[in-house]
Amino acid sequence: RFYHKRQKLPQYNTIDDVARLLQQSKNVMVITGAGISTSLGIPDFRSKNTGFYSKLIDAGIYEPEEVFDIERFDEDPSIFYRLAHGILPDETRHSPTHAFIRLLQDKGKLQTNYTQNIDNLEERAGIEPARLIQCHGSFATASCRKCKHQVKGTEIFPYIRAQQVATCKQCSAALAAAAPPPKKKKKAKHNFDTDSDENSDDDNIPTAGVMKPDITFFGEQLPNTFFDRLAETDAKSVDLVLVIGTSLKVAPVSEIPNYLPHHVPHVYISREPIEHVNFDVQLLGQCDEVVWELCRRAGWELRHEMIPEGF
Ligand code: CNA
């Protein structure tokens, strides 16, 4: 589908305009990306020098998207398992920006948080599942590529940390139960027969499936909830859009601003300005600091362990 590029609304220009919009709005859509978790030490993808993609290039991987490509994963999961520890979250912490989204929820203003993040820290921050769309899935669960058996994501964290491919315990158990009794080794007629006989048997030995975190890889479908909620509920009722900490380069999330009614104000909060989408106001800086300042101007108190007392 093709959407017209939205035009900037002339009446919104300053941070005080945004603070006023926050106070007045009732149904806020928040679209988030990796930038809201970088203050916790989880690298984003595309920031120069510090992003995960830069690190991959330093390690000699020049097409970093391949690490998250589903066909590549099925061919050779060891690439993902060798590198994914670099973006594994510490699931015990969330950032002040997560706390800001929670504050919107507590004030009854959060319509939906569309997160592209896979760290599942929205759950840690207490965002209600009914208000959260994890557009690209998350590390919260993992599934077998063969039998679809699903486990808690944390079960495969030790493998990711150890850079070892995790295989499916259910597949392994089924294979062990179905295993034929060990064959007696055939006596080779000639020395050169031994190899060929044994190899042909090895090739047919069934193996357990590989576990993959339930994050959406390139080449996989987004969850249906994304499209359903956007079209059926949010596009009709949202009255303010905040886009925070994302380069907005990955479709279809990048298309949301053009898809929504064009009279709805759109605000962008991130380190770098964006040009391919017309936002009404761009607030540039560390998002934790920007949302704190917005709260201050709106007369709201944002509490978080990383914000000093009395600040
Ligand atoms: P991206 O393309 O790396 O963009 C991140 C954006 O955030 C950039 O524009 C940065 O300038 C900006 N940014 C970084 N740190 C801050 C900060 N402290 N304050 C303000 N702005 C900041 O990442 P996107 O999220 O746009 O790309 C979508 C990908 C990234 C999704 O598929 C995710 O799964 C994937 N990702 C997620 C995580 C995570 O879950 N924490 C980590 C790394 C990548």
TrEMBL record:
Region of interest (Disordered), ranges: 179-207
Cofactor dependence: Zn(2+)
Protein keywords: Metal-binding, NAD, Transferase, Zinc
Annotated active site: H136
Annotated positions binding Zn(2+): C144, C147, C168, C171
Single Gene Ontology MF annotation: histone H4K16 deacetylase activity, NAD-dependent
All residue ranges annotated as the Deacetylase sirtuin-type domain in the record: 8-301
GO cellular component, one term: nucleus
Transferase recorded as keyword: yes
UniProt entry tagged with the keyword Thylakoid: no
Ranges annotated as biased composition (Acidic residues): 194-204
Protein family according to the UniProt entry: Belongs to the sirtuin family. Class I subfamily.
The protein's name in its UniProt record: DHS-like NAD/FAD-binding domain-containing protein
Natural source organism: Neohortaea acidophila
Shown chain mapped onto the complete sequence: 175 to 485 of 547
